[in-house]
Specification:
mainly alpha, 4 strands, 17 helices, two-stranded antiparallel ribbon
């Protein structure tokens, strides 16, 4: 009787009695078994199959890299003309200025010479580093050694005169063909340029230019400068609408639209005064820094900071929220 009364005083609440602990198997909500490992494996397999399938169907439009070997095979006359230009000091890299040399002040932003301030941080002697030094690495070629000795023995003015005369003669030759160059006083420049072409065709020039003083040759600065000094690389870029005046900028050539987030930066190169300015790089950079600063300071600029209130586009985007949370 007493025990019955004691048990009858317990009351039910939520499926459990007061004064008694919930068992580990009791729940207030429905459950079901879940295998996380199985779900992960399924997701991994599905993603892998989709990746492989889409890659097989659409592939990648990446173009093959332009190397010294492909350049020499496709445009041998351009290789010879570029080598002669490096010796004459008439190429873009030879007269670029900082960070490669002191031949020019470089890009300016108003009265400020930004490149000159930075200084020559990657010294490159175009004639020696891009042409003569790679040729000096060719072993067992007595003829080449004698040709380079003739060049080294001449005064600097004579070297420049030889190379300049040969550059001029190449430009006047039909199709720039070295075999059709008129006779003149060119010194050893034609032989140097010809051996330079042979080195490029053999594949040895690539390794000679990318040496970085370490076991792994990973410094592509000189090879890129040499390619940019020639006409072949620019011709390849323009053929794919990647020229500076063609609005071309993309990660994967031929894959529209490429880098759409770069449009604001490249846009300014297409309009005056940037389109015709020799200091367009510095000017566009300065303008973008100004626009970036204006974006950062937008919350503090009177009038600009009021635009969201005057043009409440955000209320249209978040209309569900504002409908559920009306203003008091």
């Amino acid at each position: 009787m007493g025990m019955t009364a004691t048990l009858s005083r317990t009351t039910s609440h939520g499926g459990a009695s007061h004064g008694s602990a919930q068992t580990p198997d009791s729940h207030d909500f429905p459950t079901r078994p879940y295998d996380l490992v199985k779900e992960f494996v399924i997701a991994l397999v599905v993603v892998a199959l989709l990746t492989i399938g889409l890659a097989a169907a659409f592939s990648s439009p990446d173009e093959k890299a332009v190397t010294m070997t492909t350049w020499a095979a496709a445009a041998p006359s351009d290789v010879i003309a570029t080598a002669a230009g490096e010796l004459a000091g008439t190429t873009t890299s030879a007269g670029y200025g900082p960070p490669y040399n002191s031949a020019a002040d470089g890009q300016k932003l108003g009265p400020f010479s930004l490149q000159k301030w930075a200084g020559v941080r990657i010294p490159v002697d175009s004639a020696n580093d891009l042409v003569l030094a790679p040729l000096r690495m060719v072993p067992g070629d007595s003829g080449l050694t004698a040709t380079l000795a003739t060049w080294d023995a001449a005064p600097a003015d004579t070297q420049t005169a030889w190379a300049t005369a040969y550059v001029t003669a190449l430009a006047a030759a039909p199709d720039g063909d070295p075999t059709k160059v008129a006779k003149g006083t060119y010194g050893p420049v034609p032989q140097i340029a010809s051996r330079f072409l042979s080195l490029a065709q053999s594949g040895g020039l690539e390794g000679a230019l990318t040496q970085s003083g370490t076991f792994y040759g990973s410094d592509a600065t000189r090879s890129l400068l040499l390619l940019a000094d020639g006409a072949f690389l620019e011709d390849q870029a323009r053929a794919r609408s990647l020229g500076g005046d063609q609005w071309g900028m993309m990660n994967e050539t031929g894959n529209y639209p490429g880098q759409p987030w770069m449009w604001l930066y490249t846009f300014w190169y297409q309009v005056p005064p940037f389109a015709t300015s020799d200091n367009a790089d510095a000017q566009v950079w300065g303008l973008m820094m100004l626009l970036t600063l204006a974006l950062l300071l937008a919350p503090f600029i009177p009038g600009v900071r009021s635009l969201p209130r005057l043009i409440p586009i955000h209320r249209l985007v978040w209309r569900d929220y504002y409908r559920d949370h009306p203003r008091q």
